[in-house]
């Protein structure tokens, strides 16, 4: 297959620019918030609460959001999501205004940040399913795997640059103007998005009752062994392997590397994942996908354990880099499974379930890591998470031989015939 097949479509290139700008802004914003909150509180649990504040609305609204996405026009829905994010980033910019602490207490600022993060969770519940559904309307079915790889690679590249710039930006221009940069990137995403025309609604059941729609979506996901297996495996691994939520503690109190070192640590996993994804455009991962996914999750757990016990900055960076590289394998395989095995009229609902299983497990993992660090200590919490990831991969390999034998070549051949 042509490794640049999806890039030959102009609208897809515009879509990638929109996705890059949004992921860059979102990932940078999360890092700046983490730094600001820990600087205000010096409490690891406060970092976990950031994730909890986002995951509650993201999970609570996910299924309803999937129903709405399947019923509505996708381009305009994405416009609404980006506008919502812009309002939130503007609010965070105002909350970081120099001198605000003279008139507001630390608790007032902290609770206001949590409130805006909660609003961001509402936006995110719609954003993921909308983006997933829009891709399928921009490129033909036969190049879905290639489009999914480039889309995921763009996500990872933005995830590299966002945290890296956040760390340096905090050092160079401070939290306040870093928030301004984030707001500007959201406006750039909005500007590019208007260059993509509206898309048709492919759902033949427009006006379907909400409960019936949700029931059909859940029934499809839980009935498809490949989708359900991939989502479950990734969810548990991310939930217990969420060491990145504790990086401010490692940067400030364990490795003593400051905000610039924090940016490097935060970017390392995304650098590894980006290289994996770029490589996969030439060396696809769809053959023996089940085995590759299981080995990737197992290796991820090993990397997290190494990071947890390391007291050397560059060893920690390497461990995080490798964790991102193997996590990139997991992400590509999962996204390929979803794109190949999801019918057009259910993309919003399936993507919403994916956001509950995988996307929101990042925030739940952040809360679990923060709570575990509070109870067990930071290093013990990270090592425990890595061990649970190893156990998950090993158990899945033993109890699910069907998933272990999963191969996606037949699905790709069928799509190429369409």
From TrEMBL:
Major subcellular site: membrane
Keywords: Cell membrane, Membrane, Transmembrane, Transmembrane helix, Transport
Compartments, as annotated in UniProt: Cell membrane
Cited InterPro entries: MFS, MFS_trans_sf
Pfam families, sorted: MFS_1
Single GO MF annotation: transmembrane transporter activity
Domain of life from the UniProt record: Bacteria
Record keyword Transport present: yes
Official protein name in the record: MFS transporter
Source organism of the structure: Flagellimonas olearia
